[in-house]
Specification:
The chain has a 9-stranded mixed beta sheet. A 3-stranded mixed beta sheet has the order 1-3-2, covered by helices on one side. The longest helix has 28 residues, at 12-39. It is elongated, with a radius of gyration of 35 Å. It is 39% helix and 22% strand. The protein is of the alpha/beta class.
Length: 288
Amino acid sequence: MKTPSAGLWHNARVLHLAANSLLGLALLALLGAAAYWFTTRPGFTLRAVSIEASAGTQLRFVSSAVLRNSSTRVVEGNFFTVDLDDVRARYEALPWVRRAAVRRVWPDSLVVTIEEHRPLALWGAGRVMNTYGELFAANLAEAEEDGPLPELSGPTGSHASVLARFRELQRWLAPLQRQPQAVSLSQRWAGSARLDDGTTLVLGREQGLPIDARVQRWVALYPGVRSRLENDATVVDLRYPNGFALRTASSASAASAASAKQAPAGAKSAGTTRSAKSAAAARAGQGR
């Protein structure tokens, strides 16, 4: 009596499939061994790593010495086995590198394209904001090689809002040919700005009349109001719905002197107030 297993040996179709399967496995093993042998040949050892700047830019802040040193440390493996994602991540960990792209060049080279951070402003204590509104750590002296950067500050997570307000002020102040040099938000999200002529704008919060309308009203009225003042305004309070208040250098000095005369011995000077001329200027702004 024949057993089922014995019958298989007399089945030509089954034997043919088994033979083909064994042949296929042997071929795959041979190809794998050949591929391993080929990719580990000394001819594919990485011999050069080229560094270039992203299109249309030049590398200013990334140290050439650091890049050369990194090229010998971060690249492991040969042309076929090198982990491009790992190499990219290691370059992006270097100071001033915002983004890196890595590609193979046959038969033994890599090309690394570096995009640097471009400093736009200082943020808070010791951080820098790039032109994309991203925060990064950098040597502040290097960041300000071309001159002082604007100073932005605010509560945690507010950097995008502060940057947006900075750029809005640049546009709103263009008719006065003034630029914001510092923009800040308090913990209660009340805004203020310092301009390149030393004027401080008290912006307040986004409630009632929108801030853009308040700033643009001051920009439109200030040239006329300024002609009536002995000195330029040092503080412009824009929190009023129907006008704005001004403080000039002369009004602050007069208020300080009056406060010092009236205060008892040893008492500290009271805060400055608007002069009659500043108040009149504000009322003139309201009435126009």
